[in-house]
């Protein structure tokens, strides 16, 4: 290929679009700070999501749900 001045076309790597965390807008307040300590399971739940790069070059989306009373992960999607 070099002798013939040929070059392989390399596709641009895919990077998922994620929310812009530098937007400068105010964040929602943590409403749990002034609340009493949790005493039972299934009172409050929280979640978070992220993109995970896979070995084959693809991306996976992971979202986990956590029970704040027990600190156990009670559900997830991918």
Total tally of structural domains: 1
- Name the assembly state: single chain
Write down the overall geometry.
elongated
* Helix/strand order: EEE
How many DSSP H or I helices? 0
Report the helical percentage.
Answer: under 10%
* Uncertain residue segments: none
Total E-strand runs:
3
> How many strands, what sense, and barrel or not for the largest sheet?
3 strands, antiparallel
Structure overview:
- InterPro entries: Transposase_IS3/IS150/IS904.
- This is Integrase catalytic domain-containing protein.
- It comes from Hymenobacter frigidus.
- The protein is mainly beta and 78 residues long.
- The chain has one domain (1-78).
- Helices cover 0% and strands 29% of the residues.
- Strands 1-2-3 form a three-stranded antiparallel sheet, with no helix packed on it.
- β1 (45-53) and β2 (59-67) form a beta hairpin.
- The two termini are 42 Å apart.
- The mean pLDDT is 83.
Characteristic key phrases:
single chain; three-stranded antiparallel β-sheet; 0% helix; 78 residues; elongated
Short description:
This protein is mainly β and 78 residues long.
Layout of secondary structure:
Blueprint: E1 45-53, E2 59-67, E3 73-77
